[in-house]
Specification:
Length: about 500
């Protein structure tokens, strides 16, 4: 839980307030009117000396007052994209919180109401993201954040504290899980954590273990996990129901790929591609983090999370290319490449998640290398079986700063998945446009024509972080989904 309190007041900040603070961020337009800013004269002179200072780039100085207040100036361009604002906010917060203060003062001067509100949100998101402690096994771990309060002051200052906090906790939760080493976060240990969490948070909890999945004939999922000695894989189902809700309240299903380790299987990965594969469970962590955020916000619709917890191991029992297996709906699948395990476990998980026809199913998966080759790691890919939704899905990415890009989803791509011996091939051997083929493959397992959105998380882990997130683990998807469900109102668009 993040303890930092967020406050906003429209009254302008005084020089006495600044002098009582140890950390202060001054937000202004590109060309500040320094005479309206406390200590404006000193800041103005130093600003001119900052020859390298560019718009949206914060710079820092310590004020000549008793507390040597750390002052950070953030000159903002209008307009700036949400992505640009979040990145600028991250840098400003890094500079301001360098000495781990208990409080941060943010003052706004002449920004205009919209930019001021957006800047507050971005700075709060960046400050809370930074206060999430990441798991490390060092003898001397970095000191925990002391930040207890962030105060925004000045015309246009505004903050939706519960929303920012819920999002930061959901995102932070996903990042913390993703950072755990694979000998600690095994599928079994992951399931236990989630079971405990479900009790703590009052969520419905159900676990489909290997025996249960056998009874259902979930052969696609089971093929992947047959190489693991520990028989601890399975599908976790968590449920949130709004307090006092009617039975016919809309339901959203969040589906996540939770590969706690992906060696590639028999088609084993090389060192370069294997290192980091403990984070192949990030999709499930994002689904879980999103569920927690939506629960914290007491949203008026039901949310189910379906987490495919598994590992893709090598061993005498591991599944092999040319195996033919059957998913729970009877579809036979010709295995082509054992490293395409994500779509196998998700096939059966999607079948479960969409059996009751939710209003919308969203899946999150670090699914394909092809997606990263296509986009890099600053965007994730989005696919949907509702083409009319594409503009809304893309716009939600721009608006949230977690940007997504749509790829083709035409039926003629299915030609590459035709099998001589089974109903469908798992993937193509040459791997061309594999992110598109993976999406086409998954769509076969969405039941009842459920509206479905698939996120291939190219941006799940990016060296140096992304937008307001400073860690390599980005938690990408939590913020996007809140935007999609709460601001873009995707459920209303589905009718
Ligand atoms: Zn793989």
């Amino acid at each position: 839980m993040i303890a930092t309190d967020l406050q906003a007041s429209e009254s302008p900040v005084s020089e006495a307030q600044v002098d009582a603070s140890t950390a202060w961020i001054v937000v202004t337009p590109e060309k500040p009117r320094w005479r309206d800013v406390p200590h404006g004269k000193a800041l103005g002179v130093r600003h001119v000396r900052q020859l390298a200072t560019a718009v949206n780039e914060a710079w820092a100085t310590d004020l000549p007052n008793r507390r040597s207040t750390r002052a950070v100036h953030l000159p903002l361009a209008a307009p700036s994209t949400p992505f640009e604002l979040l990145g600028a906010a991250r840098r400003a917060v890094e500079l301001a919180l360098e000495n781990n203060p208990k409080e941060l003062l943010v003052s706004l001067h002449g920004c205009g109401r919209q930019l001021a509100a957006d800047a507050c949100e971005a700075l709060a998101a960046a400050a809370l993201a930074r206060s999430v402690a990441m798991p490390v096994a060092k003898r001397a771990p970095p000191p925990p954040s002391k930040l207890g309060r962030v105060r925004f002051a000045g015309p246009g200052a505004a903050i939706d504290g519960p929303r920012v906090r819920a999002e930061a906790e959901g995102n932070g939760f996903a990042r913390q899980l993703a950072a755990l080493p694979p000998n600690e976060l095994t599928p079994g240990a992951y399931r236990e954590r989630v079971a405990t969490l479900a009790v703590d948070r009052g969520l419905r909890y159900d676990f489909h273990d290997i025996a249960a999945l056998k009874r259902r004939g979930a052969g696609a999922f089971l093929a992947v996990v047959q190489g693991s000695t520990a028989k601890d894989a399975g599908i976790v189902h968590l449920g949130y129901r709004p307090p006092g809700a009617r039975r016919d309240v809309p339901r959203v299903a969040l589906v996540g790929k939770g590969l706690c380790y992906d060696t590639g299987g028999v088609n084993v990965k090389t060192a370069r591609h294997m290192f980091g594969m403990h984070q192949d469970m990030t999709g499930s962590a994002v689904a879980l983090g999103t569920l927690l955020a939506l629960q914290a916000l007491k949203v008026p619709f039901a949310v189910d999370a379906w987490l495919a917890l598994a590992a893709n191991h090598i061993g005498p029992d591991a599944y092999q290319p040319n195996d033919i297996v059957r998913a729970a709906d009877g579809t036979s699948i010709e295995v082509v490449h054992t490293d395409a395990e994500g779509r196998m476990v998700l096939a059966d998980t999607l079948l479960l998640a969409t059996a009751g026809k939710p209003a919308l199913a969203i899946d999150y998966a670090t699914l394909t290398g092809a997606c990263i080759y296509s986009l890099g790691k600053s965007y994730s890919a989005v696919f949907t079986n509702r083409p009319a939704l594409v503009p809304l899905l893309t716009a939600a990415g721009q608006a949230s700063g977690e940007r997504v890009w749509p790829f083709p989803f035409d039926a003629d791509y299915d030609k590459a998945l035709e099998s001589q011996v089974a109903d469908i091939r798992q993937c193509a051997l040459d791997g061309e446009a594999d992110h598109i083929l993976a999406a086409r493959f998954l769509s076969r397992f969405v039941q009842n024509d459920t509206p479905w959105v698939h996120l291939d998380l190219a941006a799940a882990n990016r060296k140096g972080g992304l937008a307001h997130i400073a860690t390599d683990e980005t938690g990408f998807g939590v913020r996007y989904t809140l935007q999609l469900l709460l601001d873009s109102k995707v459920l209303a668009h589905l009718g």
